[in-house]
Amino acid sequence: MNTLIDPFGRQISYLRLAVTDRCNLRCQYCMPEKGIDIVPRQELLTFKEMYRITRVLSELGVNKIRLTGGEPFVRKDFIGLVKSLSHNDRLDQINITTNGALVKDHISALEQLKVKSINLSIDSLQPEKFLRITRRDQFARVWEAYLELLKSSLQLKLNVVVQSGFNTDEIVDFVKLTEKEDISVRFIEEMPFNGKGLREVKENWDFNKILNHIGGSYDQFDPVESGKSSTSRNYRVKGYKGSFGIIPAFTRTICNDCNRIRITATGLFKNCLFDDGVFDLKEVLRSGASDDELKQVFIDTVSKKPRNGFEAEANRTIGGVSESMSTIGG
Ligand code: SAM
Ligand code: SF4
């Protein structure tokens, strides 16, 4: 069959593509202070290659793409890539995950393209703490981008990585933002994708702890219907315009309905966030594979997609999870 179905009958329709491994911030949960060893430019997929991969995958049923990184907006002419992807009629939705520092001037261009939604990563509403977490003094620019995005036609989601010892005291402040604004704030469980591995923490802020914590301040919130393959469980406080969600990224209770594959900035194909890259797509592309050959490689690879993130992690050949999320594409 000319479509991407995994051994558990899950249809793959969503590609997460990292457009670069470079970033203008240094979030402490994502990479070490000195940054990561970025690869030489020629090791990155070109935009032409990204366009082709996406076209071929869209012919196999992928209809949604998330552009991420690294920071997508640091790659030269990123908007040019979004423009060309917008011409692909098989894609229904292009979404972008960004730290926001370079977004403000591009919002109106994005509104004209196939971009539906922006995930803005912001882990603190306090400039000093933001600086401590990201190791860069960029809060003002990110906040400006937030305010501009609110005015735009783009759907806005905030990504907040819940970091024990850093920002758990702000969880309720983030929920409060949803009172007046039609945004979705999503709390993400911290994972060990930081260039070093699991961080020692006093408290383990998993899905249940985050939800119970919010329950301590709000006794009335209801589940919000989310799509079958949504990465978050979502809720709305009674009377609030927006919603909040929790992404069980580390406890991995959402794998059953996974519809996603990932491609890193250097062209590693990943069936799961927790695998260590199941084939080098760049090598296949650059050795002159035809579209049909590429399709066959994708179909064969997806036919081996593991059941869940635990199985993917157990199958790793390069040791435990510790690579930076900026190289994988979050
Ligand atoms: N630079 C962009 C940004 O920060 O939005 C896009 C890339 S970033 C790797 C994508 C998402 O992954 C961000 O929301 C970030 O907070 C999240 N992330 C990065 N490292 C993480 C980790 N160790 N655990 C959980 N989420 C992480
Ligand atoms: Fe950069 Fe995003 Fe990683 Fe922060 S989370 S260092 S912004 S790639």
Descriptive report:
This protein has 330 residues and is an alpha/beta fold. The chain is 29% helix and 18% strand. The chain is built from eleven helices and twelve strands. Strands 7-8-9-6-5-4-3-2-1-10-11-12 form a twelve-stranded mixed sheet. Strand 1, helix 1 (47-58) and strand 2 (64-68) form a beta-alpha-beta unit. It is globular and about 55 Å long. It starts with 13 loop residues before the first strand and ends with a helix.
List keywords for this structure.
330 residues; alpha/beta; 12-stranded mixed sheet; 11 helices; globular; binds S-adenosylmethionine; binds iron/sulfur cluster
Low-confidence stretches: none
Major beta sheet, strand line-up: 7-8-9-6-5-4-3-2-1-10-11-12
Proportion of helical residues: 25-40%
Work out the strand percent. 15-25%
Q: Which class best fits the helix and strand makeup?
A: alpha/beta
Rg, Å, rounded: 19 Å
Helix and strand pattern: EHEHEHEHHEHEHEEEEEEHHHH
* Number of beta-strand segments: 12
**Shape designation:** globular
Instruction: Tell me the major beta sheet.
Output: 12 strands, mixed
Amino-to-carboxy terminus distance: 30 Å
Instruction: Name the hetero compounds present.
Output: S-adenosylmethionine, iron/sulfur cluster
Mean of residue pLDDT?
Answer: 94
What is this entry, summarized?
With 330 residues, this protein is α/β, with parallel strands linked by helices.
